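User:
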Amino acid sequence: MARARPEVLLEAQNLSVAFRGIIALQDYHLALRPGELLGIIGPNGAGKTTLFNALTGVVPVSGGRVLLEGRDITRLSPDAIRRAGIARTFQNIRLFRRLSVMDNMRISAQLERPADLLATLARLPRFAAAERARDTQALETLRLLGLETYRDAPADSLPYGVQRRLEIAMAVVARPRVLLLDEPAAGLNPAEGEALMRLIVRLHAGLKLTVMLIEHNMRVVMGVCQRIQVLHYGALIADGPPAEGQRHPRVLEAYLGVSDPGFLGQQAGAS
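Assistant: Predicted structure:
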């Protein structure tokens, strides 16, 4: 008996992005299943962040489609895509720096699930109930990321690594269907980066998140991701289990400039 095709949560079909004739992403394909932790790797300029920007409506696509649970979201605005269930972080941290940690969480939750305007203006009971529920979820999320003690601190007073965790907390507070993490360990020292990655793995499992992760630390990619995709000059050159990527000749040549199948494993062990 033929096996049923696994459910696809987020799909990209022949996705392409060009800037003034320069192709940044070309004929990209994705079939992301619920609960996956997918790593996106490739050399600088490979198109990794462009991919995230295309999936979240930050840049217009030149061709192809993006589907979320079968719904075409290709032309939606970034805020509409976020409300549909795709949240993300950025290479450069984006916080409301002069506001408290808790207010950052409230704003993020509000962006994803706007309040009922009539209930808000009239101060109806359901408005107060929604506010309480939002605060409860925000506090629960802060606890999950070890941030509860910072709830009243201004965001710009936090250490850099804590700001990174806050940005992730803001992305997951409304429990998105898909979470895109763009180099979440950027700027952290190796110990901080590995601790953050362990936290992301716990969030992935505990909240049953579906995650796409851009990361340069090969030990992280090989150790935590269930599947990897490799981009090179905007083209998808490999897609499969991490062990396959370690042996893939085009990956070794394009990403590392070597042809030794053991090199990736050596780098993962040394990172």
